[in-house]
Amino acid sequence: VVFPAFVQSHPKKQEALKIGLAVLNKMQEAKLITVDELCYRVLMQLAGQYNKPGMAVQVFSQMKKHGVHPNAITYGYYNRVMLEAKWPSPKSKGNLRWLKIR
Questions:
Q1: CA dihedral for 84, 90, 93, 95, sign (positive or negative)
Q2: CA-based end-to-end distance of the chain
Q3: Where are the chain's structural domains?
Q4: In the chain, how many H helices and how many E strands?
Q5: Of all helices (H) and strands (E), which one includes residue 45?
Q6: Cα R_g (the chain), whole angstroms
Q7: Ordered DSSP codes for 17-39
Q8: Cα dihedral sign, 32-50-58-80
Q9: pLDDT tens string 16-54
Q10: Which pLDDT tens digit goes with each residue over 68-92?
Q11: Could you tell me one molecular function GO term of this UniProt entry (predicted)?
Q12: For 58-69, how does the pLDDT look when each residue is reduced to its tens digit (9 = 90+)?
């Protein structure tokens, strides 16, 4: 309940989401608290809400890395984020830079 409010009030959404993922990773590595699937799902949902599909991919990857198995609900949210995201267009700055480098 606290993390969504933190992200909403933070001026840089991407930075706030990265902080959340870092906290989850540290909690997993320290084995202080059992981090369950819901923690990752909320972070994925927020990534989708703020149109950060790359962050959702990172969250999903970290979730699997730490042995947290997604259920059908989490897969559904992940797929929704991937399908509804506004992915960079072929004319985006990043894509144009990549074409110049190639």
A1: positive
A2: 45
A3: 2-101
A4: 6, 0
A5: helix 37-49
A6: 15
A7: HHHHHHHHHHHHHHTSS---HHH
A8: positive
A9: 999 999 998 888 888 877 788 998 999 999 999 998 888
A10: 899 999 999 999 998 888 876 666 6
A11: guanyl-nucleotide exchange factor activity
A12: 999 999 988 889
Q: Which two tokens stand for residue 96?
A: 């144009």
What tokens appear for 31 in the block?
């084995």
**pTM of the predicted structure, to 2 decimals:** 0.76
In angstroms, the CA 46 to CA 4 distance is 7
Tell me phi and psi for residue 92, to 5 degrees: -70, 160
Map tokens 């989708």 to a residue: 48
* Joined tokens for residue 62: 């970290």
**pLDDT at residue 60, rounded to an integer:** 93
Quick check: 41 and 3 in contact, CB under 8 A? no
